[in-house]
Write a structure and sequence with these properties.
The protein has two domains: about 5-315, Alkaline Phosphatase, subunit A (3-Layer(aba) Sandwich); about 325-430, Arylsulfatase, C-terminal domain, CATH 3.30.1120. It is built from 13 helices and 16 strands. It is an alpha/beta fold and about 450 residues long. Helix 1 (about 30-40) packs across helix 6. The radius of gyration is 21 Å and the shape is globular. The strands form four sheets. It has an eight-stranded mixed β-sheet with strand order 5-4-6-1-9-10-2-11, with helices on both faces. It has a four-stranded antiparallel β-sheet with strand order 13-14-15-16, covered by helices on one side. It has a two-stranded parallel ribbon with strand order 3-12. Belongs to the sulfatase family. InterPro entries: Alkaline_phosphatase_core_sf (IPR017850), Sulfatase (IPR050738), Sulfatase_N (IPR000917). This is Sulfatase. Keywords: Hydrolase.
């Protein structure tokens, strides 16, 4: 039987989605696949936001972005509300020693997070300079984690948040955002499998081939940590969680509430509790991860947590499946107010502003893949409502909002979304959400009345 309070490693990285071998992607990820083989894979795990800080904030608080306050990027002045507690704070209450390795990107002030020990500098993502993030590349983070485990400089049980820089795009001298082919191994663009939701074009293939190098680096880093757990005899008493923040940095993925934007990998291994080789297809949201961890740690889940523990799914107890998950976006590098609901069959998306057909974040807009599609995606205005039947249209290419046959479905699912927004006091219901630096904008002398 597993330890009553296992050590917990929460390993996460940028912009990876489910682009992994164990999810059927055209890339070799042997160490991540090995973790999948030894533990469980969650096939239908989605995030609350297709962007970094809001998604990570939900992972670490068990609350939706518009509830915890992190409706935009942490280095863009958005903050988790002061009264909202974070995972290491909960685990600290129940006797865990808590550690931060690598990136976190949910708070400018690391003290706000409540870790006992911070092992990394520059852990808040504040740009894309490779120099800034050298220490947070997967191989370097994994090396620090391995030294920590080997030296046994901890009190059990311990919790460690481990964040890799990969797979974030980096701005090059020519203004293009790519995946640093000079720093990582790449594959042959002619041999990569095209993405099913994008046209098969040369620039997209080149970007995918480059991205593979960062996938390999993240996989190698995880492999280093798993090997160290084995060599230190910690594997049997450690819950290992590997997850991703949102979809890959390509058009119609990152920055989009289509499935490629909100899909995320989730793998868990804990011998004695999680059976090897299990694959679960229940709908999960990343707000569910925190309450599940608290359940495993024996901590009573607070009533204000919006996620739903899926520990019963793992332990074989009665588990009431989710019928829907919710996703949202408000601010990134521009205003993009969107709310979405997904069931096992339907996706409904509501936009609350005049927006381009497909929003491209800055790094995607200036990428080779972005240049291939930005004219056709940027010119038409996006409809305020979108409805997709995922059973017949998994790529979300045919908007059914005006199809009479789907009127009843549209009315029902739109009401479900509205009910959720009202229940969670979504600020969009009262009008546009000002940017985080609004007070600074209006206080500029040129904006003041004479």
């Amino acid at each position: 039987m597993p330890s009553p309070q296992p050590n917990i490693l929460l390993i996460h990285c940028h912009d990876l989605g489910r682009y992994l071998g164990c999810y059927g992607a055209d890339v070799e990820t042997p160490h991540i696949d090995s973790l999948a083989d030894d533990g469980a894979v969650f096939e239908e795990h989605y995030v609350t936001a297709p962007q970094c800080s809001p998604s990570r904030g939900s992972l670490m608080t068990g609350k939706y972005p518009h509830v915890n306050g992190l409706m935009g990027l942490a280095h863009g002045q958005w903050n988790i509300h002061p009264e909202v507690r974070i995972l290491p704070q909960y685990l600290g209450d129940t006797g865990y020693e808590t550690h931060l390795f690598g990136l976190q990107h949910i708070a400018q002030d690391t003290d706000r997070l409540g870790y006992d020990y911070v092992h990394s500098e520059g852990n808040l993502y504040q740009g894309v300079s490779p120099e800034v993030h050298q220490a947070n590349r997967g191989r370097n983070v994994a090396s620090v984690v391995s030294t920590f485990l080997e030296k046994e400089v901890y009190e059990a049980p311990f919790f460690a948040s481990i964040g890799f820089f990969e797979l974030h795009r980096v701005e090059e001298d020519n203004g293009r955002f790519g995946f640093e082919p000079e720093h990582y191994d790449t594959d042959n663009p002619d041999e990569v499998q095209p993405l099913p939701y994008l046209p098969d074009r040369e620039g997209i293939r080149r970007d995918l081939a480059e991205m593979h190098g960062m996938v390999y680096a993240a996989d190698d880093a995880l492999g280093t940590i798993l090997e160290t757990l084995d060599s230190t005899d910690l594997s049997d008493e450690t819950l290992v969680i590997f997850t991703t923040e949102h979809g890959i940095a390509f058009p119609r993925a990152k920055g989009s509430c289509y499935d490629p934007g909100i899909e995320a990998g989730l793998l868990m291994r804990y011998p004695g509790m999680i059976d090897s080789g299990e694959r679960y297809d229940e709908l999960l949201s990343n707000v569910d991860v925190l309450p599940t961890i608290l359940d495993v740690a024996g901590y009573e889940i607070p009533d204000d947590i919006e996620g739903k523990s899926f520990y019963p799914l793992l332990s074989g107890d009665k588990y009431e499946e989710r019928e829907r998950i919710f996703a949202e976006m408000t601010w990134h590098d521009m205003y993009n107010p969107v709310r979405a609901i997904r069931t096992s069959r339907y996706k409904y998306i509501q936009s609350f502003w005049h927006l381009p057909d497909v929003y491209l974040t800055k790094d995607i807009f200036a990428s080779e893949a972005g240049r291939e599609v930005r004219e056709e995606y940027g010119t038409p205005l996006r409809p305020y409502e979108e409805l997709y039947d995922l059973r017949s249209d998994p790529q979300e290419g045919r908007n059914l909002i005006y199809e009479p046959h789907y009127d009843e479905t549209r009315i029902d699912i739109a009401q479900q979304l509205r009910d959720w927004m009202e229940a969670t006091d979504d600020p969009l219901l009262t009008g546009p959400v000002p940017p985080a630096d609004y007070d600074k904008m209006v206080s500029w002398p040129g904006n003041q009345d004479e």
